[in-house]
């Protein structure tokens, strides 16, 4: 078991971090209303090939692993870059891989297509009706909260069975807590669909939990970094606020959470690559800890920034909002962990 990044993995992290620093446009993209940073996504997916990190080389991917994908997700979580990496390079790629959709997978891996997955809350089946018509399938119903649904070219729809749609549906962008992760409602009305065999919902969910945990870890690290720097320069009553014991203890708590979260993320990513049978337990354990931990760290970051932390101009509230919405995405992780341990959910 290797939980320490090797030289190549560290170089990957440095490359992605530098690229994101050179293209820091969070506020600009928010103000534009575009939803995603398309030039940045083109560089990440097309030029660097990061959309297909876990896709085999014979299908147009990089043939890397979930450890490498977690590194990229972590850096995206640090920067809050508005690219559809989680929706397309994680959810859609994993669904296409697990379902054997080799027709679409290479185009997702290259970044030519943006994909996403539509499931109900708690990763259950949607209330979407599938009917056979003219030798094919059509869908009717609604998918209420779809990440990157506003820009997705391909949507994998789960209603107890799996279907893929590439058009013929309406989208409505929703105003949600987190403006950096667009969500849309999709409405299907006799929408042509292609039925796929298999039901890998648990596998897709567990791999998504690993990638999201890496993203959350990146956000926690950024909160710790910016809050620590602020505590060094903000002076109150003639002293830097970082010299006060209460502030030191609060920062120490965030640091401790970050260290534990990093250990869990490294283990989860390794498990996704090397020990498939153990992934459900490790994924549930990771999300049960890191979801609440990130939100607690982001809350502390806002408070320790004082009045400036509550302003729109400061980024503290963006991490706070991302932390809460990410925690809700896997709100059933604690119950899944209890089931994995043979316990009854509370």
Automatic annotation (TrEMBL):
Residues 210-329 form the Acyl-CoA dehydrogenase/oxidase C-terminal domain. Keywords: FAD, Flavoprotein, Oxidoreductase. This is Acyl-CoA dehydrogenase. Its cofactor is FAD. PANTHER family: ACYL-COA DEHYDROGENASE, ACYL-COA DEHYDROGENASE FADE28. Residues 7-112 form the Acyl-CoA dehydrogenase/oxidase N-terminal domain. GO terms for molecular function: acyl-CoA dehydrogenase activity; flavin adenine dinucleotide binding.
């Amino acid at each position: 078991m290797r939980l320490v990044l090797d030289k190549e993995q560290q170089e990957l992290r440095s490359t992605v971090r530098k690229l994101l620093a050179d293209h820091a446009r969070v506020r600009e993209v928010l103000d534009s209303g575009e939803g995603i940073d398309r030039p940045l996504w083109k560089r990440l997916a097309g030029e660097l090939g990061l959309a297909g990190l876990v896709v085999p080389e014979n299908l147009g991917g990089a043939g890397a692993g979930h450890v490498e994908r977690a590194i990229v997700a972590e850096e995206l979580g640090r920067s809050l870059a508005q690219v559809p990496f989680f929706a397309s390079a994680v959810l859609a790629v994993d669904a296409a891989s697990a379902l054997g959709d080799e027709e679409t997978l290479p185009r997702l891996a290259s970044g030519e297509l943006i994909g996403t997955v539509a499931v109900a809350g708690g990763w259950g089946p949607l209330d979407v009706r599938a009917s056979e018509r003219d030798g094919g399938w059509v869908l009717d119903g609604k998918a209420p909260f779809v990440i990157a649904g506003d820009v997705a070219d391909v949507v994998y729809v789960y209603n107890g069975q799996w279907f893929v749609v590439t058009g013929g549906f309406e989208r409505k962008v929703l105003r949600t807590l987190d403006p950096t992760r667009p969500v849309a409602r999709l409405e299907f009305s006799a929408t042509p669909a292609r039925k796929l065999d298999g039901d890998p919902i648990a596998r897709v969910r567990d791999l998504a939990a690993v990638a999201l945990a890496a993203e959350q870890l990146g956000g926690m690290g950024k909160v710790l970094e910016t809050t620590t720097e602020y505590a060094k320069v903000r002076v109150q009553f003639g002293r830097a606020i970082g010299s006060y014991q209460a502030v030191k203890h609060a920062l120490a708590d965030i640091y401790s959470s970050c260290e534990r979260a990093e250990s869990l993320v490294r283990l989860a990513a390794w498990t996704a690559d090397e020990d498939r049978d153990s992934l459900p337990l490790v994924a549930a354990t990771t999300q049960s800890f890191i979801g609440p931990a990130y939100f607690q760290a982001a809350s502390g970051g806002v408070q320790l920034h004082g009045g400036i932390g509550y302003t729109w101009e400061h980024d503290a509230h963006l991490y706070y909002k991302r932390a809460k919405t990410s925690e809700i995405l896997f709100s059933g992780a604690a119950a899944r962990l209890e089931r994995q341990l043979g316990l009854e959910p509370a």
